[in-house]
């Protein structure tokens, strides 16, 4: 049975986000920014946000575990907030503490919808 997608927002610090990105890379999840890009560009003391929006199950790749595709709101070193995607294992997401109230979650989801998208290195134009 597929786990129920939580309708919540979770806050993580930069170290936690890097761990999540590393786990996604280890599993070969497709929706993620490279860990080295995140290390180079994320604000070290920032809080970042994850909002699960889709249950992702790759039937054509049964070796890849079920994941939740999360929209993410990231704060980079310039202070700008950018939007991205990150696939996260359900059990990993469940271990992230619930720290935000309902009003904060609603405001963060609104900000996610207005944030600038960060292209993955593969999508960036070549000079």
Overview of this protein structure:
The protein has 127 residues and is an alpha+beta fold. The chain is 31% helix and 26% strand. The chain has 4 helices and 5 strands. It has helices at residues 14-27, 35-41, 90-94, 102-114; strands at 10-13, 47-56, 67-75, 81-88, 116-117. A 5-stranded mixed β-sheet has the order 1-2-3-4-5. A hairpin with a 5-residue loop joins β3 (67-75) and β4. The protein is globular and about 40 Å long. The protein starts with 9 loop residues before the first strand and ends in a 10-residue tail after the last strand.
How are the secondary structure elements laid out?
Elements: E1 10-13, H1 14-27, H2 35-41, E2 47-56, E3 67-75, E4 81-88, H3 90-94, H4 102-114, E5 116-117
Parallel strand pairs: 4-5
Antiparallel strand pairs: 1-2, 2-3, 3-4
List keywords for this structure.
single chain; 127 residues; alpha+beta; globular; disordered C terminus
**What global shape is seen?**
globular
For the residues shown, what is the average pLDDT? 87
Please work out how many helical segments DSSP would assign.
4
User: Which stretches are low in confidence, meaning pLDDT under 50 for 5 or more residues running?
Assistant: 123-127
Please list the strands of the largest sheet in the order they lie side by side. Answer: 1-2-3-4-5
The H-and-E topology, N to C, reads as EHHEEEHHE
Instruction: Kindly estimate the percentage of residues that lie in beta strands according to DSSP.
Output: 25-35%
Q: What is the oligomeric state here?
A: single chain
* Class from secondary-structure proportions: alpha+beta
Distance between the termini: 47 Å
Largest sheet: 5 strands, mixed
> What's the count of strands?
5
User: Which value, in Å, is the CA radius of gyration?
Assistant: 14 Å
Give the proportion of residues in helices.
Answer: 25-40%
């Amino acid at each position: 049975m597929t786990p129920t997608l939580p309708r919540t927002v979770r806050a993580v610090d930069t170290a936690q986000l890097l761990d999540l990105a590393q786990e996604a890379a280890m599993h070969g999840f497709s929706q993620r920014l490279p860990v080295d890009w995140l290390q180079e560009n994320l604000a070290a003391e920032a809080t970042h946000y994850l909002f699960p929006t889709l249950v992702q199950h790759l039937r054509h790749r049964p070796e890849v575990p079920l994941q939740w595709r999360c929209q993410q709101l990231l704060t980079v070193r310039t202070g700008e907030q950018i939007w991205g995607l990150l696939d996260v294992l359900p059990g990993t997401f469940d271990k992230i503490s619930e720290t935000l109230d309902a009003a904060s979650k609603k405001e963060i989801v609104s900000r996610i919808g207005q944030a600038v998208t960060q292209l993955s290195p593969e999508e960036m134009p070549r000079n």
